[in-house]
Amino acid sequence: MLRKALAGIIAAGVILGVGELVSVPFGPNSSPFYAVGSTVVDNTPEAVREWAIDTFGTSDKTALFFGMGIVIALVAAGAGVLRRPLGAVLFGVLGAVGVLAAVTRSTSTPLSALPTIVGVAVGIVVLNALLRTENPVTEGMSRRSFLGLAVAAGVVAVAAGTAGRLISQARDVTANRLGFLLPTPTPQPPIPPGADLRIDGLASYITPNEDFYRIDTALVVPQVASDSWSLRIHGMVEKELVITFDDLAARQAVERTVTLTCVSNIVGGDLVGNATWIGYPLKDLLEEAGIQDGADMVLSSSHDAFTAGTPLDALLDGRDALLAVGMNGQPLPVEHGYPARLVVPGLYGYVSATKWVTDLEVTRFDKVTAYWTDRGWGARGPIKTASRIDTPRSGGSVEAGTVVVAGVAWKQHTGISGVDVQIDDGNWVPATLSEEYSKDTWRQWTYQWDATPGNHTIRARASDASGEIQTSMTADTVPDGATGYPKAFISVS
Ligand SMILES: Nc1nc2c(c(=O)[nH]1)N[C@H]1C(S)=C(S)[C@@H](COP(=O)(O)O)O[C@H]1N2
Ligand SMILES: [Mo]
After folding, report:
1. Nearest ligand, CA of residue 355?
2. Is 448 helix (H, G, I), strand (E, B) or coil?
């Protein structure tokens, strides 16, 4: 029984390993593992996705791979235990599912079916060979031949899988990115030192690239080389444009510091970051194409077929909406969209911040929908006023006396004009704000708290520059962003 289960698991390993190796020439979405994973991601119910992001944060992909591994192992063990040839039939059926997933990815061709087919064929041969060592003439012989075959098959599976991954990675764009010549932007006004309070435990004003949150649906980071990249602007335009990096080189780049936020950020969460982007004003590109009357949306698509629907106003009203190619003085990190992405101040990422962007279709909200709007999220995605308490950390303890409380607040493209702090049920008292740099970025705040022994709750609330106070009403992230006051529970001794 155990042996049969093990045979099933090893055969499944062979399917995935061989599939991975054969997928090399056809791209990651043809690998049975990643094709099924991506299909799972695209079809995950909203509640489950939110739970995954809340629970695993930006490690949600690792969690998915782990979960898939467990499910595959269980099903494979079952296939091994089934009466022959039912196990092989089960593998065949699962293979068909894998093929279906592989050929229906956006980047698929009919050849994308090949890795799964080859993998399943080899896997079934291995399964049968392993199970045939059952019913032997002498039990001892069979155990030895089973073990030998099992180890050999296991080695083949791991070697093929690892080789497949390594070769795929070796063909990545790391080298291309290292050779990428970042344009010299017209400098923006310098960021005043007072914009960054530099308090221990408080998020720095500029988020370093390594610490910048990453959210996307890509299980394998899209690899788009700058020399094969182009951006097509089409739809309701006077003349279609196809822009390459040669064209961009003839244009003047700008730099703009803009805070990005994810709509899935829970109150107090860290799916928000501030970077200085180098890029090209989208307004210029769109106006060059010429917008037809009646258009109200730009549907941006990525290399991996993610889509976002951005209100056209936000791209034309003069705010710094960019086709960004640089992030904090570096070419975009590959996981943040190399070689080009969109950045639009004031809108959540899911409606605006398309990474690995290759296509802009000028269109209408009543004609097309985008990736997340198809999954129940709001169509337009303006960022809501929010604040966060960074220090002291909720759940922590401090000594009685003066305690520095500090955090950040944001309402991109309106600006933050104040933050108030409340201790327990006391009055709201104003915090001190960092120097404002731009209304498109977050602002830090700090408050000197005279902490007395006992358990205390600190709350914060921001006011935006239009005079509106952050709402105390609690709302979930779905469908258009969480609200409510951030709280820190602190014990003072
Ligand atoms: N191609 C692609 N672009 C994407 C996404 C995606 O899934 N695929 N996710 C969007 C979302 S929901 C957010 S919040 C931002 C996050 O950008 P970052 O990962 O650089 O922080 O990217 C946006 N751009
Ligand atoms: Mo997001």
Report:
1. 1
2. strand
- Please give the Cα distance from 213 to 305 (Å, whole number): 21
The number of the ligand 1 atom at minimal distance from the alpha carbon of 348 is 14
Contact 216, 356 (CB under 8 A): no
Tell the residue nearest (CA) to atom 5 of ligand 1.
216
Instruction: Report the CATH number of the 204-375 domain.
Output: 3.90.420.10
Q: Which helix (H) or strand (E) holds 13?
A: helix 2-22
Report the nearest-CA residue for atom 1 of ligand 1: 355
User: Is the CB–ligand 1 distance for residue 262 below 6 Å?
Assistant: yes
What residues pair up with 232 in beta bridges, in sequence order?
A: 242, 359
Instruction: Tell me the average confidence (pLDDT) per consecutive run of 10 residues in the chain, 493 residues long.
Output: 92 95 88 91 85 84 90 94 91 94 87 95 94 64 81 93 85 87 97 98 97 94 94 98 97 98 97 98 98 98 96 98 97 97 98 98 98 95 98 97 98 98 98 98 98 98 97 96 98 97
DSSP 342-411: EE-TTB-GGGT--SSEEEEEEE-TTT---TTGGGT--SS-BPPPEEEEEESPTT-EE-SEEEEEEEEEE-
DSSP 8-state secondary structure symbol assigned to residue 183: -
Fold agreement between 204-375 and 386-492: no
CA of 4 to the centre of ligand 1 (A): 43
Q: Are 255 and 185 in contact (CB under 8 A)?
A: yes
Strands 401-410 and 443-451: antiparallel
- The top-level CATH class assigned to 386-492 is mainly beta
Residue 215: nearest ligand to its CA?
A: 1
Q: What is the pTM of this model?
A: 0.85
Spatial contact of 19 and 115, defined as CB atoms under 8 Å apart: yes
